[in-house]
Amino acid sequence: MTISVGELVQTKSLQGMQTMFSQISGRYDHFNRLATFFQDGAWRDQLVRAADLRPGMAVLDVGAGTGEVARRLSRAVTPAGSVVGLDPCALMVEVARRKPDVAGATNLSWVMGQGEHLPFAAGQFDRVTMAFVLRDVPDLNAVLTELRRVLKPGGRLVILETGTPASSLWRLGHHWYLRRVVPLVGWAVSGLRWPFLYFDQSVRTFADPTQVVALLEGVGFAAPSYHAIMGGVVGLYRGEKTT
């Protein structure tokens, strides 16, 4: 099934997202490795470091997908802690569950759900993380409000997201890469092109860092911040829940 890329970019519908990620779930990790020149793992490591995790913490990873962040979180909090991976796509979670270090993690559990309606009590988690998901949600305010709600006072949100470089020359080259190369890489690893056309358009139409920081502040996060990686190709957002 192929759906309208333009429509999906506009609506970010749950059904559309489930269809897209279901179709590429088995090759998603391979695509990420190749399309990022094997940098995606290092970026996720930066997210985990920014979370400043300690043994025994309770962590929620929203949009956990194939578990690449969740498995890192699981190791960082040790068996004394707990990690919940939440995702709306069953096939992505199934890929995660088959990974040996995920299958063997006693402190890692999975829940099907959406960021806009988290099935958790208020103040349940010490940390909430999200990697390469924020640009795929239809209502940023609703999601960020929910992420803050489930954090404990003193908790921290860390978001890793693809972005657009600030340098005009770097931005031009990045957009060319997204438009011309990424769909070819996606087609080579999955046999599909349309999901990676969505990837290009979703990155280029996503809110800029100043807007995201303002949204974080607007829903109540204290000291929201942004750290550019590779000139802004990827960025780390952070916010604290003080009360």
Question: Briefly, what is this?
Answer:
This protein has 243 residues and is an alpha/beta fold. It is built from 11 helices and 7 strands.
Structure, described:
The structure is a single chain. The N and C termini lie far apart (46 Å). The chain has a single domain, classed as 3-Layer(aba) Sandwich (Rossmann fold), CATH 3.40.50.150. The chain is built from 11 helices and 7 strands. It has helices spanning 5-11, 14-24, 28-35, 40-51, 68-77, 90-97, 100-103, 140-149, 168-190, 194-204, 209-218, and strands spanning 58-62, 82-87, 108-112, 125-131, 151-162, 222-229, 234-240. Helices cover 47% and strands 21% of the residues. Helix 8 (140-149) links the parallel strand 4 and strand 5 (151-162). The chain has a 7-stranded mixed β-sheet, sandwiched between helices. It has 243 residues and is of the alpha/beta class. The longest helix is centred in the C-terminal third of the chain and has 23 residues, at 168-190. The protein is globular.
Short descriptors:
single chain, about 240 residues, alpha/beta, Rossmann fold, 7-stranded mixed β-sheet, about 45% helix
Beta content comes to 15-25%
List the strand order in the largest sheet. 3-2-1-4-5-7-6
Low-confidence stretches are none
**Fourth CATH level, the homologous superfamily:** Vaccinia Virus protein VP39
H and E string: HHHHEHEHHEEHEHHHEE
Radius of gyration: 17 Å
Query: What count of domains describes the coordinates?
Result: 1
Largest sheet: 7 strands, mixed
What share of the residues lie within helices? 40-55%
User: What would you call the shape?
Assistant: globular
